[in-house]
Design goal:
Cytidine Deaminase, domain 2, binds zinc ion, Cytidine_deaminase-like, guanosine deaminase activity, CMP_dCMP_dom, alpha/beta, 5 strands, Zinc-binding CMP/dCMP deaminase, single chain
Length: 188
């Protein structure tokens, strides 16, 4: 057990579900991927019911994906959004996802918690698109932490477009399925 490094990994099945060559043109297909990742993460028992993906806004190129890995990796920071952000930054070898002038967007199957909303701001993405609401997450027992409407306005004022409730019901269903199949609600 190293005291000098930490490792984040995606589950082995990711490449069976993700088509890395595809160009994702519309919000609906981008969100469908984020939700499918959340669904597969539940079905395959590899973490909590949350999935995310980061795209180049204009080309529709997929840069990274993330799923919740909190329990398998013993890492309270390994939320889907943070995993996707860290992998995207690693892929670009940059701490900012707009340093090269390319606009990027984060799609997430559920509205971000306090940590991930902050992480979204620091990542440099220019667009945040969410499916299920914080209320949907709370309804099954997850705590989203101190996220308020002014938090979203802060991102907007910083130049991040925020779009919410895209395919909300499909994403909320994954949350319910997780609960109904006995998934652990941590930090509840
Ligand atoms: Zn989070």
């Amino acid at each position: 057990m190293s005291r000098q490094s930490v490792t984040l990994t995606l589950p082995d099945w990711i490449n069976d579900v993700v088509d890395w060559q595809r160009r994702y043109q519309h919000d609906d297909e981008k969100m469908a991927l984020a939700i499918e990742l959340s669904r597969q993460n539940v079905l395959r028992g590899t973490g909590g019911p949350f999935g995310s993906a980061i795209f180049d806004c204009d080309s529709g190129k997929l840069l990274s994906v993330g799923v919740n890995r909190v329990m398998p990796l013993h890492n309270s920071s390994a939320h889907g959004e943070m995993v996707a952000i860290m992998l995207a930054e690693q892929a670009l070898q940059s701490f900012s996802l707009n340093a090269d002038g390319v606009k990027r967007e984060l799609f997430t199957s559920c509205e971000p918690c306090a940590m991930c909303l902050g992480g979204t701001l620091w990542s440099g993405v220019k667009r945040l698109v969410c499916a299920a609401t914080a209320e949907d997450a709370r309804a099954i027992g997850f705590d989203e932490g101190p996220v308020f409407e002014p938090s979203y306005q802060y991102l907007r004022d910083a130049g991040v477009e925020v779009v919410r409730q895209v395919q909300r019901s499909a994403a909320a269903q994954v949350l319910k399925d997780y609960l109904n199949h006995g998934g652990t609600i941590y930090n509840g």
